[in-house]
Amino acid sequence: MKKVAALLPIKENSERVRRKNFRLLCGKPLYQWILETLLSCQRIDCVVIDTDSPRLINELNANYPKVKTILRPENIRGGMVSMNKVIEHDLLICKEYNHFIQTHTTNPLLSKNSIDDAIKCYFEGLSTFDSAFSVNRIQARTYWGDGTAINHTLGELRRTQDLVPIFEENSNFFLFSRQSFAKTKSRLGEKPLLYETSRIESLEIDEEEDFKFVELVLSVLIERSDKCEKR
């Protein structure tokens, strides 16, 4: 099987939720949830963390020695820098890998099974697609800002399950090759495969209320898991 490196960017500070990546979520820092999921995936050979935090690098070296760390250069730091610029820098360092999955700390509920299956589908589809990214299916009556219907006819109340679905990028993950990135300078290739993830796995932490909601959902999932193990 071809080698895959997981790219995980982690900033020291966050704009909307203070120090979000290091804030405790159900007992451990947010970043550790997705990191430990990536490390458990059978189809990922290496986890690479790109960060502007020397403190985090020291912490990772002590607790996760298998993780490769990259100290982000000053010229590509800050909230206005495109993630594609960060990826471009990471690919210059990770020269031994040709295929990559990039994800975020803000998706702590993304599962090992979904990641492994997405990588499998990505490789199986390379004869047709050049990349892949995660989406949510929207099968509801949708409109443009001026009130124009997108996927239905105004006044014609077809069942929502019969409407043409629209797909929303959810930022769970992006799969791409060194070749596709070089061609487009983007984690999205010219012909990407859309991979659907569940609503729960797609929950993303951007705002304070997101953090509280995800913590509630995660605590319920943990409680259910503990009960199942005791049976």
TrEMBL record:
Molecular functions per Gene Ontology: N-acylneuraminate cytidylyltransferase activity
Pfam families membership: CTP_transf_3
Tree of life domain: Bacteria
Cited InterPro entries: CMP-NeuNAc_synthase, Cytidylyl_trans, Nucleotide-diphossugar_trans
Protein name: Acylneuraminate cytidylyltransferase
Source organism phylogeny: Bacteria, Bacillati, Bacillota, Clostridia, Eubacteriales
